[in-house]
Amino acid sequence: MSNYGGTIKKIRKNKGYTQKEVTGNLFTQATYSNFESDKSDILSTNFMHLLLQLQLTTDELSYIHNDYQFNKPTEIVKSFFLLPYNNKTEISKVISSIDEYHLFGNRNIVLEELRSICESLLIIETTGDFKKAREKVNKVWLYILQINFWKDLKFTSSSKKYKITFIICISNKYH
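== Transcriptional regulator with XRE-family HTH domain ==
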């Protein structure tokens, strides 16, 4: 579990829970104590149980575990959603951040898809060629349709400023 035991312990104590309260009967006291001391790992199902007991998401745990900082992919995704979609310089910065992340041998499908979207935005901004831009994001669009996670992806035009509007619709399995 990537040495999350110590972080879980810190959160548990901060919330005022005992080991027994968060584990129920899933662990022996020794097993859980070893996990919190980063001496052993636990099954992923038990790990998810602990997160539920602590009312904690995996993103929140990761943020706390990383000294209250987002990991690089999360930072890049956040910068993407904050960028002005018609600003070539800012779009290029996001692409550069993605490329830099991949230079170190990291692979992240979400970042690859965001790169395609950024490239598409640049095509629209520089050439106005919606057909070419659509070809660039077609794979992403098909994936979105397939998983029914993102409901709508539209190119809209307003005073020569182009945007991609993302409306996130979490499917029933995420409710």
